[in-house]
Amino acid sequence: MSKSMISLVNIERKFNSKRVLNNLSLTIYEREVTAIIGRNGSGKSTLLNIMSGLGTFNKGNREVRMSPLNRKLSIGYAPDRFPKLRFTAKEYLLYMGKIRGMDHEQLLKRISELFITFQLDTWDTQQLRTFSKGMLQKVNIMQALLEQPDLLLLDEPLSGLDIQIQDELIHILSQLKGEGVTIVLSTHERDVVQRIADRVIEIKNGEIASDKRKSKSTNPYKIVEFIMDEIKAEQCCSHAEGIIRRDKTDGSWLVHIEAIKCDAFVYNLLNNGGSIVTIGIERTANKDRSITDTEVMS
Question: Which CATH superfamily groups domain 4-215?
């Protein structure tokens, strides 16, 4: 089994006399996507807030393990509301990186990468108050990713967004999953649960009503090693379908991709100036079965 990253043990949270979380215990494991579902007011947002380290609680313990790289666990958190500030998108991200103590040059490079990944590179100098809800949500998730966190917490990341933006964000989250980022998100959207979740936890009245892992089936994949400019490689990978994981090694990239999607991916690499080093033999990977509609609360 995967190693645990963070555990909540017998957590109780009250607001005035109302108990929002009731003796709740939960462990999150590395390299998994966990979806938290439940009706409004069930305690999902409070749970994520406590998990992030920002929220307080009345009883219980929050236990954080070291990251997979044996350093302090890095947590990125995107809450469910993002105000329309009088910052430009770039100014806001620079400010958020600065208060976190990030190196300026590394911060600028990271912001540039995120603008490309989220397809907002032509909007970096526009004020956030002019952004649509979908664009604001992209910036909200971008700030959570500034420090390339081990654990990414997202509170209703797709709520109220149109289908196109939802699909774009699910695709980005799939890429992050492939890179090994652990993700916990609260959601009402069935599509995100079906497409990327490994585990589905339902919250009712501040308690865990169910905790299910999605069944697995085997799916063939290939390993593509290639050499390419970093920005172009990020663009090709962010728009590709079927990527399971990707890694950057000294001088080259390694991408694990579903076999059925491999030819299209390689064709796109070559058309954008990439050089293929090797294409590995087909292997077996785990692929999630979609859960039933009734397992996602409306």
Answer: P-loop containing nucleotide triphosphate hydrolases (3.40.50.300)
